[in-house]
Amino acid sequence: MPLEYATQTACADEYPTRRQTPEKWMERKDPVLWNDWTQSAPITKGQAQSFERNGYLVLRNLFSPEEVTALIDRANRLRETLAGARSEEVVTEPETNAVRTIFRLDHKDPLMARLAADRRIAGTAQFLLGDDVYLHQSRLNYKPGFTGKEFYWHSDFETWHAEDGMPRMRAVSASVLLTDNRAHNGALMLIPGSHKTFVSCQGETPEDNHKSSLKKQEVGTPSQATLRDMARMYGIDDAEGPAGTVVLFDCNTLHGSNGNITPDPRSNAFFVYNAVSNAPEAPFAADAPRPGFLAERKVPDAIKVQKGRLA
Fold this sequence. Notes:
Number of helices: 8
Radius of gyration: 18 Å
CATH topology: Jelly Rolls
CATH class: Mainly Beta
Number of strands: 13
Strand order of the largest sheet: 2-11-7-13-5-4-3
Shape: globular
C-alpha cells in the first residue's frame, strides 16, 4: 500500500528557490519511495532500497535485442527527418545545426509512445511514486561524436518547481539508452544521495529562460562550492550501460554529463513520469510557465500501462 502522506495545500512553496538570498541547503520534505515494497513490486527489494538510498537505479536486459534494434532505428529516422526543422521542439547544439534534443517524443512517433507506456518502465514509475503517472515531458537526447556538448550539473526538480510549478518531489525520470553510454562518450553522471537535499539557488529567473537554458543551463544550478561538497560527501557515479539499458533517477538527484569528443555518439530516449496528484500549478519562481512541450499543463490523463513486446 502507498505510504501515507499529508498533501500540502495548493500553492504552498515547500522548496523556495531563485531568490536574492544566498544559496541554501534544505532537507527533503517528501518520501523517495512512495510505496512499501512487496513481492508483487516490479523491482526487487534490494533495488527499491538502492533507489531510496542513492536516488537512481540502473536496469539492464529489460528489452530483447529486436526491441532495442527497432528503437535505435526509429531514433535515427527521427533525427534524420527533423534535422534542420524550424521548430522550438527541436533544439540544436549551441554552435552548429546538429540535433541535440527532440521534445514531445511520444507525440512524434507511435513506437516511442508505446515505449513510454510500457510496463517495464511506466509500471516501475507507478510503483516508485505510489500513484498513477503521466508524462510531464518526453524527449530524444543526442550527443554527437566529437562535438557533443556537456549538460551542466543540476536538479531537474529545481527547474520543474521554479518554472513549471511542480509542487512536490513526486516525479522520476527514465533514460532509455539507444547507444552504448560510457564515461568516455558523455554518459550520465549522478551524485548518489544528493536527492535528499534541495539546493535553493540564488538569482532570479530571466524572461523566457528556457530559450537559452535548453542549449546551456546557467540559472538554477548549484554553486561550485555546493557541487564540490556534495561530490566529497557522496562521490560521483557514471550510469554506464549498453543500448537498451534503462536508468531511473529521482527528480531531485543532481546529475550532468561531460562533453563528447570521441567518435562514438551518445543517445537516449527520456521520459519524465509525474504523479497525477502532483500536477503543476503556477510557477513558483518565474513570471510565466514554460511552453507545453517542456511541461505538460493539461489536466493529466494517467498513462494506460501496456504489457508485451514493443515490436
